[in-house]
Amino acid sequence: MRPVVCIIATLALVVSLRAAEAATCTANDFAAAVDQSGASLRALTLEAQPKLQERMRRYKAAKKLGDDAYENTALDAIRDKKLDEFDKKSSDLLLTVDSLGRVEDGAPPDCAKLEKMKTAAAELNKVIKAKSDYMLRRLDEKIAEAERQAGQQTTPPAAPPKPPATAEKSNPPVPPPPAKRAATAPARPAPATPSWTADTKPNDAYTGPNLAMRGRGDVPGLPPLQEDGYTIDEIRSATRGFFGTISTNLASVIEHAFKQMGRPTGYVLGTEGGGAFLAGLRFGKGKLYMRSERDVRDVYWHGPSVGTDVGASGSRTLFLIYRMQSPDDIYRTFTGIDGSAYFVGGVGLTLLKGGPVIMAPIRSGVGMRLGANVGYVRFTDRPTWNPF
Predict the structure, then answer these.
(1) Strands 266-275 and 280-290, how do they pair?
(2) Which residues neighbour 131 within 8 Å (Cβ) at sequence distance 6 or greater?
(3) How far apart are CA 258 and CA 171, in angstroms?
(4) Are 361 and 279 in contact (CB under 8 A)?
(5) Do residues 350 and 342 make contact, with C-beta atoms less than 8 angstroms apart?
(6) Using CA atoms, how far apart are residues 108 and 373, in angstroms rounded to an integer?
(7) Which one of 130, 187, 265, 360 is most buried, by most CB atoms within 10 A?
(8) Each residue of 331-362: pLDDT tens digit?
């Protein structure tokens, strides 16, 4: 009996030692796994981007679009619920990869998280590949539809039937004298034909929704307005040299942020850029200003870009920050507040929340980024190795 017990004990020891050995991992393993995931996403993008751009050029030719906005027009044409679902799932998976891929300085890495992160990264690649294939199919459908419509418009209409041959025109006969005319009933007036112009005249009284005057009730769960902090004139002054001239659109978006949240306790001015067509990265660098602090500090941020951006892009960015008592409170992950997206022209914002802190990133030239690309933003005090 004792030999059996010894054998069982030995086997259990070997299994536990192998499990412990398998569970050994380092922060470098997390970094390598995240780098590999990022490389896979870039490879997918590089493979799909030429195909998608070629389709969009064909769509441009079929619809006879200009060079300035045909890409966004094509992407708007294929946008549907399924693509929105792809974007939502991509954003969630990127957030999972980011949160699992972080190893705190000095803390032992959790190897179980490493496996979960690898699983999430593999699933992300599947979602992006499915999204790419779906976009290609949708573009093919829209191209075929546009070419059919163009063909119908260029087909010459059938010639109208020739009137029956009549005798050669001659001088009109002289009417008989009035006394000899047959008595006839008065002619009825022809029925009035509906006027297309009258029926389609725009209603001048309708002005449409005034986005700049939306109330706080449109975004549930916002805390009370703040009355201390930077004034709107101070923010306008700070952004005047940064964004160039203050455009009407930018001024409207800043006014909307003040109406929603009141005065910010801090703000960040910086630039961000990324190269994302199907999924990718957005990095930023800027300076943090706080009313309660004399020193200005450099901050960095990153987040997913999983919408339908075309090629690399960059933009000037202003973050208005609320309820932040210390500069260190910015070093956290901020996620989007549903229903807070707001844009006017080429400028937009979305409210983000991290703990008690709320911020409103205001971007110029957002294009398709707005809404589709808002997943989260994470701030750090130095550039991070983690590409997400």
Answers:
(1) antiparallel
(2) 83, 86, 87, 90, 278
(3) 82
(4) no
(5) yes
(6) 33
(7) 360
(8) 998 888 877 778 777 778 888 999 999 999 98
